[in-house]
Amino acid sequence: MTEKTVMDALVQMKRTGNLLNELEDLTQQLAQSIDRNDQVSTQMLIAMREEPLAKLQAADKALREQMEVLSDREEAEKLAALLNGGEAEPGERTQQMLQEQVAANRRRLKQIMTVDRVLNQRLGREQSAYQ
Fold this sequence. Notes:
Layout: H1 3-35, H2 39-48, H3 50-69, H4 73-83, H5 93-124
């Protein structure tokens, strides 16, 4: 796999990580506003979460497009494996960095989803998306 291919993916995954950090912060603020029963802040924070979510979708789309334009199918498969949590090739530092970023993003996303599930159930009760 070329260094440029891995580096382009790493840039997108770092961008994704930053967006996940922003989303996590907004989610925590949302939880606090719900705890305070502050409906105005709750509505505002729900709306504010839309922007990082849209940007996350765009970053995901960019990664998918990057894989689609790769002419070497083997390279595309290796990149897809790395992006899905696969192991980096030994001694390939950029691939290892990508692997670490993917793992960090997964952990962050899992944390966000856990909090989001609780918040959704609290707000939506029987109409929760998680029912």
